[in-house]
């Protein structure tokens, strides 16, 4: 507050005060680039230039307002944990996204107590969207249950010893999820495939090995700068399905 008294002449003092106080927690200098793909956000809405950003859920909360440089944006989409950027800003044209390039920006967020308060607000304000998310989650759940029970009959997916609890996210091969690696093969050289490909930390799960998550056997085929320790990124073909997966903690087993 005290730092800002000199700039009151230029802007509405009330606004400036709130603005500065709100984003008091410095995250660090992060890699930020831009995208222009008009894919629906986590909330099932069209992205809005100047507001929508995609960010890694291991760093930020969905729906959280963050300050990049001197502008405030809202996290409305998931960025793959293995993307080299930390944040991607939505632009309404490809030219604008190219012009944005790759920047290193100072990023700020609200203080932990203010984030908790904002989360409460957004849960009460967006009941509808969370219900929709639930529906989607239920849909995909019943889908994967079918798969699992189907495969049970041929008695594959027998899990071996527990590898422990992992933080699990999902990604697809689009520019929002995969940044500069969009459309490309995995780091092991094969093209990613839904129901098979996961990205891992090779020092935890070696490339080429098979693990079981929720009864489905996956192959460790991809890596990424954000995937370290007990973290796994599951590949999906469909962007919306990857988005709705969110961040989960699950026990992972070695495949037998
Ligand atoms: Zn995607």
Can I get a quick summary?
One of its GO terms (molecular function) is hydrolase activity, hydrolyzing O-glycosyl compounds. This protein is α/β, with parallel strands linked by helices and 256 residues long.
Biggest sheet character: 6 strands, mixed, barrel
Assembly context of the chains: single chain
Provide the CATH superfamily of the largest domain. RlpA-like domain
Count of domain modules: 2
Poorly predicted runs of 5 or more residues:
1-18, 123-156
User: Total number of helical segments?
Assistant: 6
GO cellular component, one term: outer membrane
Protein name: 3D domain-containing protein
Pfam family, one: 3D
GO molecular function: hydrolase activity, hydrolyzing O-glycosyl compounds
Could you walk me through the main structural features you see in this protein, from its secondary elements to its overall organization?
The protein is α/β, with parallel strands linked by helices. It folds into 2 domains: 2-124, RlpA-like domain (Barwin-like endoglucanases, Beta Barrel); 128-255, Barwin-like endoglucanases. The protein has helices at residues 13-22, 94-100, 112-125, 127-152, 175-178, 239-245; strands at residues 25-35, 52-55, 65-68, 71-78, 87-90, 103-109, 159-171, 197-199, 210-213, 216-222, 231-235, 248-255. The protein has a 6-stranded mixed β-barrel with strand order 1-5-2-4-3-6. The protein has a 6-stranded mixed barrel with strand order 7-11-8-10-9-12. The radius of gyration is 20 Å and the shape is globular. The protein starts with 12 loop residues before the first helix and ends with a strand. The model is unreliable at 1-18 and 123-156 (pLDDT under 50). Residues 111-158 are annotated as: Disordered.
